Amino acid sequence: MVTDSSVAVSGWYLKFRVEGATPFGPGLEECGGLLHEQMGHRLSPGFPVAYHNDIDCTWTLNATQSGVTLEFPDFDLEKPGEYQGCTYDFVEIYSGHNRVGRFCGNSPPPTNTYYADRVSIRFKTDQHTVASGFRFTWAYLPPATTPEPATTPDSTTKPDPVTTPEPEITPDPATTPDPATTPDPKPATTPEPATNAPVAHTHS
Q1: I need a surface site. Which of 68, 110, 134, 177 has the fewest CB within 10 A?
Q2: Order of strands, edge to edge, in the sheet holding 56-61?
Q3: pLDDT tens, position by position, 60-70
């Protein structure tokens, strides 16, 4: 809203309501409702100063097959009773129709990813002690990629016949050479004795 420095009139009044929310007092924030955004955060009424008494409201997330992650970065509620547990002020988490747990004091719900059709965050307080409250965030996971179906081979196509490999040819065993032929020894030839030639006589 922007105004100038001259004429002034009575102004205007804005009233709104969160879808599915539960009002718990005049002039106070509304609590709970359906959360449609892909991611975001919500605060308990009055956070971080103090929440109010007699609150009972629920935020709802419509989870998908990919899941939604829920986290409580800030959490401060009335401490549990010594023996009664979280019976005064508490937060309850539901995954579908199953209660995940009830939480109070300074022990927030653990960060978790839920895959149920619906996730609910219930906030309930009694008529007495209050604390600063809480802040929670949520984020939907991206949808998982569906793998392509495996290709089924065409049953009408006959596979190629398996070719039987030809038997390996074993080489002929090595031929053993014939033993060397030893020549028949020849007897040594004895030279014939020299023939004495006749001596010529010279007549003087």
Answers
A1: 177
A2: 33-35, 56-61, 119-124, 90-95, 98-103
A3: 998 776 899 99
